[in-house]
Design brief:
Layout: E1 5-10, E2 32-44, E3 46-49, E4 54-57, E5 65-75, H1 76-85, E6 93-101, E7 108-115, H2 153-156
Antiparallel strand pairs: 1-5, 2-5, 2-6, 3-4, 6-7
Length: 159
């Protein structure tokens, strides 16, 4: 049986060269293929928060920047793994959005994006980014789950 394929837009630690990119291939029969670099067609606040320097895309359309990232075609198994990583739907919510290719083609693509909807309003006072790299000039290196000593979600979410 052939698995349904999905487009996913990633903007943070799942991008190529970032600490969580391996989640695309953690199981033998995972399928993923890089399609293109892209950016959102809506503005969003992309912040780096907690003492673990985690990137968060906050759901507040129209505020922030057009976010740059990568689009991958993935199978159901990869989508389920990413849902697990992003704790969808209890932490992040995965929704379909239009993203625009950043190449000569420049057309829009529908893709899943993980956004945070239930966040503390003070997070909107943090600096906004349009592109994320764990090794970026911001100097805020991402801490993997193995380097963490507590559940950071209480710093972010409204309960």
């Amino acid at each position: 049986m052939v698995s349904k394929l999905h487009n996913i837009f990633v903007y943070g630690t799942l991008k190529k060269g970032e600490p969580n990119h391996h989640w695309f291939s953690i199981e033998e029969d995972n399928y993923y293929k890089f399609l293109c670099k892209a950016q959102t067609t809506e503005r969003f606040p992309l912040i780096i928060a907690t003492k673990y320097n985690i990137p968060f895309l906050l759901y507040n359309p129209g505020m922030g920047n057009y976010i740059k990232g990568e689009v991958y075609k993935i199978n159901e198994k990869v989508l389920n793994n990413l849902d697990s990583l992003e704790k969808h739907p209890s932490f992040y919510v995965r929704e379909l959005y239009d993203v625009k290719r950043i190449d000569a083609n420049a057309q829009n693509i529908k893709a899943w994006i993980y956004v945070m909807k239930n966040f503390k309003p003070e997070l909107l006072h943090k600096p906004f980014f349009d592109d994320y790299s764990s090794e970026g000039a911001h100097g805020l290196k991402f801490a993997t789950k193995f380097e963490r000593d507590y559940d950071y979600r209480t710093e972010i979410l409204l309960f």
